[in-house]
Design brief:
Aspartate Aminotransferase, domain 2, binds pyridoxal-5'-phosphate, 13 helices, Aspartate Aminotransferase, domain 1, four-stranded antiparallel beta sheet, single chain, about 375 residues
């Protein structure tokens, strides 16, 4: 028997309360019972996103909402600024390209800090850019980006939208949409929302709805105007992912009961313990401005990062993640977003220690676990 622990940056572990709720017999979606659920979910999503506006719900993975944030706002031939510093920043630029939008890329070495002044300079040079697309966390590198500061710059450009991929940011750290002037904030179910993959979300500002009126990119499945009209009637444009929305109701109740500030504090201390444990083992954290969502750790000299990730999973039952694209083999990642507590971190660090010992790395056995325990003793 091997017990399994899921500490990947998505999908994340699902609380038993949510699993049980989703296992209930399916109900019909054009039914008052379902409409009551949607009403509650709408209210609680506004709480989670920090917005007075509706948060749209889509039956898709997170990328569906990212794509919609291009196709519902822009027109072919428009320009948009994309921050590229990892796999998901590249995705913004790829979506733009697919729909005939010219991406003006801010290319940052993977794992580096994003200086808001660079975005400001790019905007000044390209005031006709219709949007700035960026990540809250670049999951592929574990870097956190300065959303608040960039949004404060974009706010002064009436013809530019601030669009944030908060797929590993919403429910992880402070990201209040209205207070920070984020025009579109995207999230996905399989991250801090503690659900299986299959739902995507987009909070949309009044400014963004104005842009939507002039958007000429063709749209059908991801037609945000139609989704808004339906959502305001507690419905969706197409058949919704009913069981996932019922699970979402439960997950949002749990987040609300804990309180968003407490959720942020919990995830923050877990990530801090993970980083400090790695350093205590003589390892280096990859991102210069690390996100609490996921810690990317540099594989020690001569040891393959993929071998670390694979051994932790195969031999010790802890699923983290490896590196992607240019970071494959160079890093491995341990996530702390969603349904995670201190025992998850201690377990992951001990699996890491067993793995490193197996792979011949020289270190003091127990140093990482001791550091994690010390960091978490009062958590
Ligand atoms: C920051 C970020 N953006 C986008 C995505 C893509 O989301 P999905 O795979 O749900 O389409 C992910 C998924 O890992 C992510 O972490």
């Amino acid at each position: 028997m091997q017990k399994r622990y899921l500490l990947a940056p998505g999908p994340t572990a699902i609380p038993p309360e949510v699993l049980l709720k989703m296992a209930e017999p399916i109900i019909h979606h054009r039914n008052p019972l379902f409409e009551e659920i949607v009403q509650e979910v709408r209210d609680n999503l506004k709480y989670l996103f920090g917005t007075k506006n509706e948060v749209l719900i889509f039956a898709s993975s997170g990328t569906g909402a990212m794509e919609g944030a291009v196709t519902n706002m822009l027109s072919p031939g428009d320009k948009a600024i994309c921050v590229r510093s990892g796999k998901f920043g590249e995705r913004w630029a790829n979506i733009c390209k697919a729909y005939g939008v010219e991406a003006i890329n801010i290319d940052l070495p993977w794992g580096d800090i994003l200086d808001p002044a660079v975005v400001e300079k790019t905007l000044k040079a390209n005031p006709e850019a219709k949007a700035v697309y960026m990540q809250a966390t670049e999951t592929s590198t574990g870097a956190k980006f300065p959303v608040k500061e960039v949004a404060a710059i974009v706010k002064d450009y009436p013809n530019t939208l601030m669009v944030v991929d908060g797929i590993t940011g919403v429910g992880v750290f402070e990201l209040p949409q209205d207070a920070w002037n984020i025009d579109i904030l995207v999230a996905g179910s399989q991250k801090a929302l503690m659900l299986p993959p299959g739902l995507a979300f987009a909070g949309v500002s009044d400014k963004a709805w104005e842009f939507n009126k002039n958007s000429k990119i063709p749209k059908f499945y991801f037609n945000w105007t139609k989704e808004l009209t339906n959502l305001q009637k507690n419905q969706t444009n197409f058949t919704p992912a009913i069981s996932l929305i019922i699970g979402l109701m439960q997950a949002l109740q749990m987040i609300k009961a804990e309180g968003l500030d407490n959720v942020y504090k919990r995830i923050d201390i877990l990530s801090q313990a993970t980083r400090e444990a790695a350093v205590a083992l003589g390892l280096k954290v990859f991102a210069k401005s690390p996100s609490p969502a996921v810690t990317a750790i540099v594989a020690p000299e001569g040891i393959d990062g993929q071998a670390i990730y694979k051994s932790m999973w195969k031999k010790y039952g802890v699923t983290g993640a490896g590196g992607q694209d240019q970071l494959k083999g160079k890093i491995f990642r341990i996530a702390t977003l969603g349904y995670a507590d201190k025992y998850d971190v201690i377990t992951a660090v001990s699996a890491l220690e067993f793995t490193l010992r197996d792979l011949g790395y020289k270190f003091q056995m127990g140093a990482g676990v001791a550091k994690a325990v010390e960091c978490l003793k009062d958590a």
